[in-house]
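subagent[fold] <- orchestrator: predict structure for attached chain, return tokens only, no commentary.
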Amino acid sequence: MPAAWTPLTDADYTALTERLVEEIGDEPLWIFAYGSLIWKPGFASIACKRATAYGWHRSFSLRIERGRGSPAQPGLMMMLSRGGRCDGLIYRVADHDKREQIESALRRELSNKDSLSTFRFLPVRTEDGGTIPALTFWAGGDSPRIVKPLQPLEEVAPILARACGHRGSCAEYLYNTVVHLAEFGIRDRNLWRLQELVAKEVEAIHGEAPTNAADTLPPDTSARLN
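subagent[fold] -> orchestrator:
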């Protein structure tokens, strides 16, 4: 962990968990997934459905030097930035299990105190027209790791094509997100364009033609993407 970080302690996680449990009260707990939480949530759920966060959009704006990046070759991870809309999924946690699963989600998403301003309950719209609060991670905030202003996709792609760490590469992270969103019939235009740009960068670096993302999708989803 970088020396400048102040890691969260067990007591911090407990206090944050209790705060969120109190905030949600007796209402159902839903967690909004727009990136890797879709395909690797790290918490237990009992239901899942599509939902949209209005006023936010996906952006590769979180600078990382570990996980899928390194100090020598920093990467970028997704977060939610202001403006637009974000289509994703919400997962419901069992009522009796809120405390344990909130702490699991916190430990997955947050490791140090510079991230304490980046999670919140966001109102999301479900397919039936209802609006519910959903716990969302990395939505805005003032972490020094957030890159501002937003970078154009043409500048993000070379970073994602090169950054890699002990958890894998940023290119793999993007690809997994695109494919798993497609399985739910969700196409984020910017992500799909970014996937094309990163694939071209990878081909230029390694001299090999990458697999077409659409070719790996289940038949019922590839049709929806055209």
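orchestrator: received. Logging for downstream: Strands lie at 29-33, 47-64, 75-93, 119-126, 131-137, 164-165, 168-169. DSSP finds six helices and seven strands in the chain.
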